[in-house]
Amino acid sequence: MSTNHFFILYLIMLFLQTVHIFEEIGFKAYEVVGSLNKYLIAASFLVFASYLPLILILLDIRAGYFLAFFAAILALGNGIIHLIGYIKTKSFRGTVGSGVFSGIPLGIIGGIVLIQLLSIVR
User: Fold this and answer.
1) 8 against 33, higher pLDDT
2) CB-based contacts of 67: which residues, under 8 Å, 6+ apart?
3) Ramachandran region, residue 94 (left: φ > 0; alpha: ψ -120 to 50; beta: rest)
4) Residue pLDDT, tens place only, 70-96
5) What is the spatial distance between Cα 92 and Cα 100, in angstroms, rounded to a whole number?
6) Residue 31 to residues 19, 78, 92, 106, Cα–Cα distance (Å)
7) Res 1 pLDDT > 60
8) Are residues 67 and 52 in contact, defined by beta-carbon separation less than 8 angstroms?
9) Rounded Cα distance, 107 and 90, in Å
């Protein structure tokens, strides 16, 4: 698969990450960490950590691909954690189950991006 396909997949992952944050705010997932301010600080860091690899890759800095592994693993883990959280709590509001609707597609695309990264970096 070409790097153009990788960029498209990565941008889809970033879009789903952004949608996921709005879903978590809507379902009050921030109650898990204590406050909306703490949640927004953590979410901002994760968004920055997800965009940084893309910027580095576009600047032709190879380290961006390795940092993208972490972003893809976070996306994959996010989907898994929210699915398990929903199964355990059976709730969307104020629990780890918040974000399951966008978390599952985010996890799937994170897994696909991870597979693509393995073929690009070789």
Assistant:
1) 8
2) 49, 52, 53, 56
3) left
4) 999 999 998 898 888 888 888 767 666
5) 8
6) 18, 17, 12, 21
7) no
8) yes
9) 19
